[in-house]
Specification:
Layout: E1 5-10, E2 13-18, E3 21-25, E4 37-39, E5 43-46, E6 49-64, E7 67-80, E8 86-88, E9 93-97, E10 102-103, E11 105-106, E12 117-119, E13 124-132, E14 140-145, E15 151-157, E16 162-165
Parallel strand pairs: 4-15, 6-16
Antiparallel strand pairs: 1-2, 2-3, 5-6, 6-7, 7-13, 8-12, 9-10, 9-14, 11-13, 14-15
């Protein structure tokens, strides 16, 4: 399988698409790392942290926690094997639905939701993250963004990976 490069220019930045993974060259000549992609259940290693979206469920509910509606609920886990602390939280995640919508996480009042924290070397954290789907499809991708805005990982959400709960 060969590499396929496609240059896309916007202003003075050029992005290179390699298969389904993108890396960008910025004005100063540096190259950003490609986005790491995985399916639900697969780990992504990023800077000494292992990140997994373990489970994806669509919850249709009249009253779920503090909100009403239709939600994509993910169980995620993070484990650090790096020397420097790793800060994390639920607001670091975004969902991009197949219809083009960008969704931010919402709080559903669950006891097991992902909180804010700092992982030290050898420590782990896990919890649930929810997105209010409204009328948007439960298909697309979910991304974890680092504090500086770079994407740590991207998980493809397909109908085959999503279970429905009530």
């Amino acid at each position: 399988m060969g590499w396929r490069r496609v240059a896309v220019g916007v202003g003075s930045a050029a992005c290179v698409v390699v298969s389904v993974v993108a890396g960008c060259t910025v004005d100063d000549g540096t190259v950003e790392e490609p986005v790491r992609s995985a399916a639900v259940g697969e780990a992504i290693e990023s800077g000494g942290v292992s990140i997994v979206v373990q489970d994806a469920r669509v919850v249709d509910s009249v009253s779920y926690g503090l909100r009403r509606g239709r939600f994509l609920v993910l169980m995620v886990s993070l484990q650090s094997q790096r020397e420097a602390p790793f800060e994390y939280g639920p607001l670091d995640w975004r969902m991009y639905a197949d219809d083009g919508a960008s969704l931010e996480p919402v709080v559903l009042g669950e006891d097991d939701r992902l909180s804010f924290g700092t992982l030290e070397n050898g420590h782990a954290a896990s919890g649930r993250i929810a997105f209010d789907l409204g009328e948007h499809p439960a298909r697309g991708r979910v991304e974890l963004h680092a504090v500086d805005g770079t994407v740590e990982g991207s998980w493809r959400i397909t109908e085959a990976e999503v279970t429905t709960a009530t």
